[in-house]
Amino acid sequence: MSISINPETDALVAVDVQYDFCPGGNLAVPDGHQVVPVINALAKKIPHVVMTQDWHPAGHASFASSYDGKAPFETVDLDYGVQVLWPDHCVQGTNGAAFHADLDLPNAEMIVRKGFRPGIDSYSAFYENDKTTHTGLAGYLRERGITRLFMTGLATDFCVYYSAEDGRKEGFDVILVEDACRAIDLDGSLEAAMSAMQAAGVKICHWDDVG
Ligand code: VGL
Ligand code: ZN
């Protein structure tokens, strides 16, 4: 497959390339750091770049440590539904919340922070996990005339997946750059996410398809 870039209407979206999702981090994604050079290379081909940053206050509702007797990767029922509980990660202002230092995206035009409300998690770059609270990204992209998104980053089966699916719901063309992402893969979550994305009309490509 060969995909030619429209420099006006295409955007690269780099999801949560932060130390806590890289090896050695608090919620490490296997080989998470390997997305960095791939995303850097894509940013040389796609002029418009948006980054997301998972950005939780201490004591966040998605942290297992916020509940008595709960361990990471168990679930809890919140007002908006079932929430997976995570190790404390991407706490505002900590090194774990910082972008990987080798990420070289001087052309990033927008950084969307998400998950900053104490009681709501946000996997998606578009809406929080209650599915109603918007981040503002869809409006931003529309005002900028962006119509197609190249999704990259961490993790394929959580924040990248929900962002890709919600991007489709908001009417964007969405292409997942598979080798520019890495997965957590919790109980088959990667396979489930790939099927759901394909059902939602997300196209899958590899970084060297992008010209
Ligand atoms: C993520 C779990 C919790 C992600 C963020 O970036 O995929 N996953 N917070
Ligand atoms: Zn998080």
Describe the structure.
The chain has helices at 35-43, 137-143, 156-169, 189-199; strands at residues 10-15, 48-54, 75-78, 81-84, 108-114, 148-154, 173-182, 203-205. The chain is an alpha/beta fold and 211 residues long. The chain has one domain (10-209): 3-Layer(aba) Sandwich (Rossmann fold), CATH 3.40.50. Strands 5-2-1-6-7-8 form a six-stranded parallel beta sheet. It has a two-stranded antiparallel sheet with strand order 3-4. α4 (189-199) links the parallel β7 and β8. α3 (156-169) runs parallel beside α4. The radius of gyration is 16 Å and the shape is globular. The mean pLDDT is 97. The structure holds pyrazine-2-carboxylic acid (VGL) and zinc ion. Pyrazine-2-carboxylic acid binds at residues 16, 21, 54, 86, 123, 154-155, 158-159.
Biggest sheet layout:
6 strands, parallel
For the CA atoms, what is the radius of gyration?
16 Å
Helix-strand string:
EHEEEEHEHEHE
Give the class-level CATH name: Alpha Beta
Mean pLDDT: 97
Give the strand line-up of the largest sheet.
5-2-1-6-7-8
pLDDT under 50 segments (min length 5)? none
Amino- and carboxy-terminal Cα gap: 10 Å
CATH superfamily: Isochorismatase-like
The structural class is: alpha/beta
Helical proportion, percent range: 10-25%
In total, how many beta strands?
Answer: 8
Content of β-strand: 15-25%
Question: Which ligands does the model contain, each kind named once?
Answer: pyrazine-2-carboxylic acid, zinc ion
Helix tally equals 4
CATH topology: Rossmann fold
Categorize the overall geometry. globular
